[in-house]
Amino acid sequence: MLLASTAAPALQAAGFVGTWDTDVPAGRSVLDAGAATMLAGDLSLAGRPLPLDVALGRVHPEDRDWVFGKIRRVRQEGGPVSLEFRIVTGTGETRWILNRGCLTPDAAGTLRGRGAYIDITDLHSRSAALPDGSGAPEPSEAEHLDAAADHCLRVHTALEHHGDTYLRMISGMLLLGIGRAIARRAP
């Protein structure tokens, strides 16, 4: 178990930016201080319900349409959220952000979402700086496993709505197997 005294440095070392909490029917998201500063560009917006265009005001212009479109779709359907996109900071620097979370019904049946933002710029800067100029390398085994986990989560979520017990069991077993493989690769 991670002690509270080590949680903040561990999260910072992992690139943790901040969290979001979305009230889907209202079309508003509440960002914590880190997310408001990095994604909206204004610390004073932390804790306030924000429309999507304000909450993600710093999304790179080239990524804006597809990011907003994907978020709008998941707000209609619910389920997991996993997006990598660029932002432009107040100083003009481009950073890569991973947005992970899930939109699910609360006890009253209202769709709500919660998740986190992680700065993954270091992962993209290594592939962009390949000496032969060939661009991004072939995805590693770990990246393929991460992609499989994301796809399996989507399948499992869809099967939860389908109701077939046998298929849910199989997708649950696959998720368990993928989770174990990911745990084995962790140092």
What is the strand tally? 6
- Helix-strand makeup class: alpha+beta
**Which percent band covers the strand fraction?**
15-25%
How many helices? The count is 7
Shape: globular
For the termini, the CA-CA separation is: 16 Å
Q: Helicity, in percent?
A: 40-55%
Number of domains: 2
Q: Which value, in Å, is the CA radius of gyration?
A: 18 Å
- Poorly predicted residue ranges: 127-133
Oligomeric state of the chains in view: single chain
What is the string of SSEs from the N terminus onward?
A: HEEHEHHEEEHHH
Strand numbers in spatial order across the main sheet: 3-2-1-6-5-4
> The CATH topology of the largest domain is what?
Beta-Lactamase
Per CATH, the class of the largest domain reads Alpha Beta
For the record, the CATH architecture of the largest domain stands as 2-Layer Sandwich
Can you tell me the CATH superfamily of the largest domain? PAS domain
Please state the average pLDDT score.
81
How many strands, which pairing sense, and closed or not: the largest β-sheet?
6 strands, antiparallel
Organism: Methylobacterium tardum
InterPro entries: PAS, PAS-like_dom_sf, PAS_fold_3
Protein name: PAS fold-3 domain-containing protein
Domain PAS fold-3: 56-109
